[in-house]
Specification:
The complex is a heterodimer of chains A (327) and B (515).
Chain A lengths: L1 H31 L5 H6 L5 H10 L6 H13 L13 H36 L4 H15 L2 H15 L12 E4 L2 E3 L4 H33 L3 H8 L4 H30 L2 H6 L5 H10 L3 H29 L7
Antiparallel strand pairs in A: 1-2
Helix pairs in contact in A: 1-13, 5-6, 5-8, 5-10, 5-13, 6-8, 7-8, 8-10, 9-10, 10-13, 12-13
Chain B lengths: L2 H17 L10 E6 L14 H7 L7 E3 L5 E3 L2 E6 L4 E6 L13 H10 L10 H5 L1 E7 L2 E9 L18 H5 L3 H4 L9 E7 L3 E6 L12 E6 L3 H9 L5 E3 L6 H6 L3 E16 L10 H10 L2 H8 L4 E3 L22 H10 L7 E7 L6 H13 L4 E7 L1 H8 L6 E6 L6 H8 L20 H11 L4 H18 L3 E14 L4 E2 L14 E2 L2
Parallel strand pairs in B: 1-10, 1-11, 14-15, 14-16
Antiparallel strand pairs in B: 2-3, 4-5, 5-7, 6-7, 8-9, 9-10, 11-17, 12-16, 12-17, 13-17, 18-19
């Protein structure tokens, strides 16, 4: 029974996702009408009116809005997002070349924020009123409230420029793994370059997870089962990690998972500060160059990633917590 | 007892990454330059912006080239002359090979010149390509060619340093996407790898006709974020930095590890004003009043942090048509008020100012300063600043009242600039394409057209200087503000020799590393 319900649920969610994607693409297209005319940048400073018209025709931008939109959708369904205006390379190839860098950054940010967030959360819940806990909590307030670009610039100034501890920008040495997948995980230089941008990207996450863990732990430590565990004379480590933390982790992991999509999708600011060669950086360059096909495809892929992750989380959540039903 | 070793290991790992290996100075055979604006494409005709041309110039070469000061020198042509009004003759360099091993021949020149005419996505040099009628050998000698133009074009040779010669065979056989990603030229450096917006890696061309360049590997890294750009040079991650952000200039200048080099930029920043009858600004007295109400020294000191030079005209000194005798009107708000009263605006008037906010150094702040200075003489400026992607299309509709633009001419010819910027708008003929306010002066149009027919370069220069002087002093066709400043920071102690170029191109063969 539940298997069937789950299947129906997944189908429904996928159908909903398609509607969301359609809406996203329509909004993108509508925005372009106000975003500046790509023809002017592409035809060059010295082009005459006739030459500009020719370019407009080549790009199919002389057609009415709805024709452009429908032909885009028809092609997109077949997985063809067209050629980039500027580089004349298939847009998908361009984005997939850059995606690995963004994914590596997001994974590292995720890892750092999970590891540090949970560790610090647990530490600050042990003695909630001690000086150390107060410092951690104040710090987490900064993490939540400071905008990403400021965090990035501060980290560059302190760890990069003043202390010279870590390289301030770029991706360092990368190694080609398969096809276009280059990784910075396998070289020390690459790992060193990862730390600052990953910390910047994950800072907000870290603070959120820290507060979530701490809140959960404080509550769990008051629960009857924890008291029972203490009363049985179990060691602090077993009580903390085996009894309390396990229960706290369910919401923490859910939130972290939900935010994973956002880390990949919204790394634009971090990537531009650190000149990270990822897809966010590509998006920014494309906006400057009014390269509309790249922008639409990026937004669509991003939406797709976020939607997919959300569906997975919902399903996993149901598996983890049998109380949730799919009707 | 399992978790502690894990934590310890993590700690060691992090410490290792942070502490160790920060000293990574190996024997230097690579020069790394950070620039503010990334190149768009490796197709040498695909973009006519200097941040693109100045980079592909390492891989490709024109028939001619320019040295750091802007002097025209031979490159793929060994000598050249104008044989008659329409014909230019070139002696080609023999024994030059493209990076793929193909020989450089006159057919490549012919092919390139024809390619310039193919519109988007191939070429942005359409106007220049359209000037060329034919490229033919002289009496069957494949090393001497005649290029014939449609009209007498006195600046033809002036533009050839940026028309890069491509290999006919490999260009014809590859897609435009491929060409834009994997360039093949005759230049001093061979292409290695390009990740757009991140880095471009080049390697010395050992078979270069002028001998292999001194630096073996060259790397160009665009860093758009100003504070990161400063961090890049402060930590020595890059050897040379172009475009020190003006707001962080002092930080860089104070750094003992860095040497700062500046020079006046070619680009001037100036204001356009509508002169259509009926507008207050069609009255020459009002134009003069606005000019005199602007305190340029204050703008340079307060807005530009001292990093700009006042200008009295659009072109810079090396441009044909520059006239050193043109002077700025003095800053005199009292006189400005008087002129306004004479013109019938004793209480001033309202005017809308349109300008970019992400194109030129401190463009939005300049606009704000202008508004407050003009308010002092009673002119109320309604500010409308916007991103360049929105601003430039608006400008193309020629309907602005008061606007800001930056300009320099890549072909060093004021006549060509004037045609684009201030000739009355004529879409058919391609005149006045960037005349944002439909400025129209029949006298200036006539002067310009007359100058175009003069073949003798000296006489033509004279005519353009006259045109310039009349436009700036009599007509106040525009209000000039300042030349920007080109700035560079070089990391000391690495033996790097680097001379900035007037055109801001990054030409690696001119650099060297002392061993």
């Amino acid at each position: 029974m539940s298997l069937f319900l789950m299947f129906a649920y997944i189908v429904r969610r996928i159908a909903q996702s398609f509607i969301v994607l359609l809406a996203v693409s329509l909004i993108c297209f509508a925005i372009f009408q106000f975003m500046g005319d790509p023809v002017l940048t592409l035809a060059g400073r010295y082009a005459t009116q006739a030459q500009q018209d020719l370019v407009r025709k080549t790009l199919g931008l002389d057609r009415p809005f709805y024709t452009q939109y429908f032909s885009f959708i028809a092609n997109a369904i077949r997985g063809d997002f067209g050629l980039s205006y500027v580089t004349q390379v298939p847009v998908l190839r361009l984005i997939f070349e850059r995606l690995p860098a963004s994914i590596e950054l997001a994974i590292t940010a995720m890892f750092l924020s999970l590891f540090l967030g949970i560790t610090l959360g647990v530490v600050s819940s042990l003695k909630p009123h001690s000086l150390g806990s107060r410092v951690i909590m104040t710090g987490s307030l900064f993490g939540i409230s400071l905008p990403t670009f400021l965090v990035g610039i501060l980290l560059i100034l302190v760890l990069g420029v003043s202390l010279r501890a870590l390289p301030p920008f770029g991706r360092g040495r990368v190694i080609k793994v398969i096809g276009n997948w280059r990784t910075g995980f396998l070289t020390i230089d690459g790992l060193r370059h990862l730390i600052l941008p990953a910390l910047t990207l994950g800072m907000y996450q870290l603070a959120v997870l820290l507060r979530l863990t701490r809140g959960g732990m404080l509550e769990a430590l008051q629960e009857d089962y924890t008291r029972t565990a203490w009363a049985k004379g179990l060691s602090q480590r077993i009580v903390m990690f085996k009894h309390a933390l396990r229960n706290v982790l369910i919401p923490v992991v859910t939130i972290a998972g939900l935010q994973m999509g956002e880390l990949i999708a919204f790394s634009i600011v971090t990537e531009s500060i650190f000149q990270w060669p990822g897809s966010g950086n590509l998006l920014l360059t494309s906006i400057y160059e009014t390269d509309h096909p790249v922008i639409v495809a990026y937004v669509m892929i991003t939406a797709l990633i976020v939607l997919t992750i959300n569906i997975f989380i919902d399903i996993l959540y149901g598996i983890l917590n049998p109380k949730i039903s799919y009707d | 007892m399992k978790r502690i070793p894990l934590l310890v290991m993590m700690g060691i790992l992090i410490l290792g990454l942070v502490g160790g290996l920060s000293v990574s100075s190996v024997a230097k055979d690579t020069i790394v330059v950070a620039v503010g604006a990334p190149p768009q494409t490796m197709n040498p005709h695909g973009s006519d912006s200097d941040c693109n041309l100045g980079v592909v110039a390492n891989i490709f070469e024109g028939l001619l080239q320019r040295d750091t000061s802007g002097t025209l020198l031979p490159a793929l042509a060994t000598s050249w002359e104008r044989v008659n009004e329409l014909t230019w003759q070139f002696h080609l360099r023999q024994g030059v090979k493209f990076h793929n091993g193909n020989d450089f021949t006159w057919e490549d020149v012919k092919y390139t010149m024809e390619r310039l005419r193919i519109p988007y996505p191939v070429s942005e040099f359409l106007a220049f390509g359209g000037l060329i009628v034919s490229v033919e050998t002289v009496e069957g000698n494949p090393w001497i060619i005649d290029i014939v133009t449609t009209t007498p074009t006195s600046y033809f040779d002036q533009n050839l340093h940026q028309v890069f010669i491509m290999d006919k065979e490999s260009t014809e056989s590859r897609s435009i996407g491929e060409i834009g990603q994997y360039p093949i030229g005759t230049g001093a450096y061979k292409f290695v790898e390009w990740i757009k917006g991140s880095y471009l890696k080049l390697e010395a061309n050992e078979d270069y006709w002028d001998g292999p360049p001194s630096v073996k590997y060259a790397e160009l890294r665009p860093v758009t974020e100003p504070s990161t750009r400063v961090a890049a040079i402060a930590t020595g991650e890059v050897d040379v930095l172009q475009d020190i952000p003006v707001e962080l200039f002092d930080t860089v200048a104070k750094n003992a590890n860095l040497e700062v080099v500046t020079r006046p930029a070619r680009r001037s920043i100036w204001l356009g004003l509508r002169n259509e009858p009926g507008f207050p600004t069609s009255d020459i007295r009002v134009r003069k009043a606005i000019y005199m109400a602007i305190n340029e020294d204050e703008i340079i000191e307060k807005v530009m942090f001292g990093h700009a030079f006042p200008c009295a005209q659009i072109p810079d000194p090396p441009t044909v048509g520059y006239d050193a005798s043109i002077e700025r009107l003095p800053y005199d708000p009292e006189m400005a008020k008087q002129l306004l009263a004479e013109a019938g605006y004793p209480d001033g008037f309202k005017i809308k100012f349109t300008g970019p906010n992400d194109r030129y150094v401190r463009d939005e702040q300049i606009a704000q300063a202008l508004a407050s200075q003009l308010a002092k003489v009673g002119i109320e400026v309604e500010l409308d600043t916007k991103p360049k992607a929105v601003y430039f299309p608006e400008m193309d509709e020629h309907g602005l009242d008061f606007y800001l633009l930056g300009w320099f001419d890549g072909s060093y010819d004021f006549g060509r600039s004037f045609t684009k910027l201030l000739h009355s708008v004529d879409a058919e003929a391609g005149f006045g394409g960037l005349n944002g306010s439909s400025y129209k002066s029949i006298a200036l149009d006539r002067l310009l057209e007359a100058s175009a027919e003069i073949v003798d370069p000296a006489l033509r220069g004279e005519a353009l200087r006259l045109l310039n002087k009349v436009a700036m002093q009599e007509k106040i066709a525009i209000i000039p503000l300042h030349y920007q400043e080109d700035s560079y920071a070089i990391y000391k102690g690495r033996g790097i020799s680097f001379t900035p170029r007037s055109d801001t191109w990054i030409v690696f063969k001119e650099m060297s590393i002392e061993k």
